[in-house]
């Protein structure tokens, strides 16, 4: 029987069905298949890099089988991400732990393999490597020192901003600090957020176009190439016109948010889960919309976030409407809503432009409703929900998922956020688009259930030895996640479930109370 089982496994390993998803599951459960990682595209493996590093740190047997792969992939971008993740998990504290010292040894191996001597970013010559024709398609190991110092310089700006009281003073300090960074540019340094998709070197940071974003006390965001409400193409052209390098045909503007004072490993996990859901719905041809944004973890309290361009928070939209409505005595003007914004930006309710935006809104609202339900996303106030220029609703900030909520009060009890304001944009209860919303919820639930193992495995691997607060519930976190896919339900029961979820969420009293709390405590509309 054992020989037959081994034969079937061998067939699976050699079949076209054996993909990176199965490989990761089998690697975690059986501590084998490490050499098969070489058979997959690098981008497929890179998606699971947090899981590989977590297993490397916490499961010695897995570390042994995947070590050759990590060493073979010793290019600069890959090694840097490994180094930063190892650093974020504090492997230096395991230096004398016989069971977990392999993570520390790997970190030292990466540093030694990319040893960079005495160069540092602040000592770089400002000579333009861009203009002298140097090829930047391939990174050299000698560039690792300047790159580490460049990222360190950006993160240090965030740490400096923490000690400054007023927003005006922070903004001025940001400009001054970026001027100092620009003294050492152009240089052969890059933004890791775009390292795989766009080969580039950094020429200059537009310091006067950057800004400090509103955030929690102790947490600093600053956005290189902002302001938030300006259309992206207009912003791009304005900055290009003022750039001394703007005439070069390969010039690009790459936006990035630098975040310090907070752990982005959980945001990275949310990115993986949202991307997996997004891919499942594409494969199953379900027209649900999600917009995952990339995350780079640089340490346990700093990193980079991909900004979503041409989008504005619901809070800012309503605030702008209120400002424009001042002096207008009509009730609609004094109580601006999301529907007011849609009518103002997309035209009359049954016009072509409005209907396209409304469909985008419904498909994205349904996508994020399911994502928030599966992942138990909390802290869903209007500052954490964006609307883009095409009408898509986009959720950001996944600091509270799975088994944690703000202050662990579990206050937001509804499955997802579905206020009357959102329903009004769909056309109201009983409208065709509201019914379409419920149909999408059902189709999305069925498709996600079919591939639920892809979601569960990502979480399951990360729980092992994890320090993330979203796993505070331990084994119950996985059990509850599996239960939300309702594997034992018939399709009829799933239809009834969707109706129940919508009814529980529709203008929920706890959602309204949480929004009111955010309004009175933080001024969020």
UniProtKB/TrEMBL annotation:
The keyword Transmembrane does not apply. One of its GO terms (biological process) is phosphatidylinositol-mediated signaling. It catalyses: a 1,2-diacyl-sn-glycero-3-phospho-(1D-myo-inositol) + ATP = a 1,2-diacyl-sn-glycero-3-phospho-(1D-myo-inositol 4-phosphate) + ADP + H(+). GO terms for molecular function: 1-phosphatidylinositol 4-kinase activity. Its EC number is 2.7.1.67. Residues 230-510 form the PI3K/PI4K catalytic domain. Keywords: Kinase, Transferase. PROSITE patterns: PI3_4_KINASE_1, PI3_4_KINASE_3. Coiled coil: none annotated. This is Phosphatidylinositol 4-kinase beta. It comes from Dracunculus medinensis. The lineage of its organism: Eukaryota, Metazoa, Ecdysozoa, Nematoda, Chromadorea.
